[in-house]
Design goal:
The protein has about 250 residues and is of the alpha/beta class. It is built from ten helices and seven strands. Strands 3-2-1-4-5-6-7 form a seven-stranded parallel sheet, sandwiched between helices. The model has no long low-confidence stretch (mean pLDDT about 95). The structure holds nicotinamide-adenine-dinucleotide. The site of nicotinamide-adenine-dinucleotide has 29 residues, from helix 1, strand 2 and helix 7.
Length: about 250
Amino acid sequence: MDLATRVAIVTGSGRGIGRAIALKLAQAGAAVVVNDIGDAKPPEAVVKEIKAMGKEAVAVMADVSSASDVARLVEKTLAAYKRVDILVNNAGVNRDQLLLRMSEEDWDKVLAVDLKSVFLCTKAVVRHMAKQHWGRIISLSSVVGIVGNKGQANYAAAKAGIIGFTRAIAKEVASHGVTVNAIAPGFIDTEMTRGLKEEWRRELKKIIPVGEFGSPRDVAEAVAFLASEEAQYITGQILGVDGGMAASWL
Ligand SMILES: NC(=O)c1ccc[n+]([C@@H]2O[C@H](COP(=O)([O-])OP(=O)(O)OC[C@H]3O[C@@H](n4cnc5c(N)ncnc54)[C@H](O)[C@@H]3O)[C@@H](O)[C@H]2O)c1
């Protein structure tokens, strides 16, 4: 897989799955814009790791749920590399609570960071991709957006929204050389899932057919494939990277 000459923006890539995606795309030759909001790990640390591999990257702090921040993120990308070929909508948060205890604030926060950001970032890059007749948009949905989960109504709604958005935009831009796909990870070992109680983790492993949580690397490999030249005829798809979870429920 060769992504030399490609420029990728990976949102929320200061840690976790986003970091693994940024490292993988860089390893495949892409110049990577490492974005994060900075309340986890500042994106500069990941840029350092990429540069240590002898590859190219810049850090841009931006809140992807803010239209003005997203405009700045894309401006900085164009200023640094003159083009944008790959957008990975990875930034996400969860604010889990049963519906009757879920505040409007927690609903709005998750919908803004996990779904509105996908609309803002995609809209901000798609014109540039269509003009160059080449683009890849890959968004992180979740198995929870497909089958639902107790205590995650906001997160499930946002992740299901990404699926509808992906299929709609895939149809809008297919004739412009731009593919639009989503990944639906199952339970992946990151800070987002590390907070789960050990007892709950043991129970979850019982419903994952392969018997283990996935790694950020598992997701990054799938993203890199969808970003590649070789995936040019794949669009509007939702690819499960879930150890068989969705298959065992649907
Ligand atoms: N870990 C899992 O099991 C799992 C499963 C399915 C889907 N996902 C999805 O994969 C993506 C990455 O998850 P992760 O486990 O690496 O999570 P994580 O919490 O480890 O990383 C998310 C990153 O997004 C950043 N971020 C949050 N709000 C932001 C904003 N407004 N602007 C820019 N960056 C922001 C955070 O600072 C953090 O660095 C998320 O969209 C998540 O919903 C994760």
